[in-house]
Design a protein that fits this description.
Blueprint (H helix, E strand, L loop, with lengths): L6 H8 L2 E5 L4 E2 L5 E2 L1 H14 L4 E4 L11 H18 L4 E5 L5 H14 L3 E5 L7 H13 L5 E6 L9 H10 L3 E6 L4 H10 L4 E4 L3 H4 L11 E5 L11 H10 L3 H11 L1 H8 L17 H10 L19 H14 L5
Parallel strand pairs: 1-4, 1-10, 4-5, 5-6, 6-7, 7-8, 8-9
Antiparallel strand pairs: 2-3
Length: 335
């Protein structure tokens, strides 16, 4: 675990590779329970089978807004237990976002005590008074904890920090060492790097890595939270192979691999079901049902209740058919 004092030095040496954002498998009536066996199997698959070096827990794909505080604590504990059993060096990242600073503090203290390496706080989802309010939120947590902190700048919050606002949080809060930039605005990430060159930035827009931004030091060599386990299997590893080429600065080879392996086409074939609900097309979402359906196509356990919890909608048949077809064309499942 990185303490606040050594967070930035720790981030430079430990944030590297694919970080898997874990879904939450539900079971029981209306998905009121969690299938712990399925969750344990997912962690073992990501860390032990695929050898991905980072986990991202209780965040958007996990549907943190639909989980109780006790559930979020236990999900993190199980991820640490299973992940470290498979790989003692796995980096465990916990999202402790909450509308109330006191709830976020409780989850952050728990993550620190449970042995997480770093905590990420998504821009508060309700009543955030711009960057000033978000800075106050971070300061409230940092003053009461001693663990590395990261920002999670997602449009699903309803407010996206500007580069200047993120840089101010970095300047003011010594524990802040990383950020997941989820708004798909590369120009803002480049400006953020100029304003806060010591901040480890992961940009969700993949094109920046092909453009050499990792070589230039604009972005860090880690995917701080993605669903890499949905893009490969133990027998067929196109996603890991692509990422290793990016890390080695073999950009032409990486682009050729993405084309020839079908990764680029797979992105097109999958469509936007992971991040867009058609009934509200202007809103960026983490549609848990879509991620879990994709996992089920690959044979991963998702629990007896395959849907997201409210307030998300159930995944329609159209989405399932498109996801099925994308995986068949990609070759990760039988044709």
């Amino acid at each position: 675990m990185a303490t606040a004092k050594d967070a930035r030095e720790w981030a430079r040496s430990h944030l590297r590779g694919i970080g898997d954002s874990l879904y939450t498998p539900f079971c029981g009536v209306d998905g009121d329970d969690i299938d712990w066996d399925a969750y344990r199997a997912l962690v073992r698959h990501c860390v032990g089978v695929l050898n991905h070096p980072l986990l991202w827990c209780t965040s958007g794909i996990a549907e943190f807004w639909a989980l109780t505080i006790d559930e979020r604590k236990r999900l993190l504990e199980v991820a640490i237990e299973e992940g470290r059993a498979a790989n003692p060096d796995v980096v465990v990242q916990a999202c402790t976002a909450a509308t109330a600073a006191k709830d976020c503090l409780e989850l952050t203290r728990h993550a620190q005590e449970a042995g997480a390496d770093i905590v990420y706080i998504q821009t508060p989802m309700m009543e955030a008074h711009g960057g000033v309010g978000v800075l106050r939120f971070f300061r409230y947590i940092a003053d009461r904890t001693d663990i590395a902190l990261g920002m999670f700048n997602s449009p699903s919050s309803g407010y996206v920090l500007t580069p200047a606002e993120s840089a101010e949080i970095f300047d003011e809060i010594a524990a802040v060492c990383a950020t997941k930039e989820g708004a798909f605005r590369p120009a803002a990430s480049r400006l953020l790097h100029e304003l806060a060159p010591g901040l480890a930035v992961w940009e969700c827009d993949k094109t920046v890595y092909r453009a050499g931004w990792l070589r230039d030091g604009v972005v860090c060599p880690a995917q701080l939270g993605t669903a890499g386990y949905l893009f490969e299997t133990a027998a067929h590893r196109p996603f890991s192979e692509y990422w290793e080429l990016i890390l080695a600065d073999k950009l032409i080879e990486a682009m050729d691999h993405a084309r020839d392996s079908g990764l680029d086409q797979f992105d097109l074939d999958m469509g936007s079901w992971f991040t867009c609900y058609p009934g509200r097309p202007d809103y960026f979402t983490h549609w848990g049902g879509a991620f879990k359906y994709a996992a089920s196509v690959l044979g991963l356990p998702i629990g007896a209740y395959p849907h997201s919890r409210p307030p998300q909608a159930e995944l329609p048949a159209e989405a399932k058919a498109q996801i099925d077809a994308a995986y068949r064309r990609f070759g990760l499942v039988g044709t």
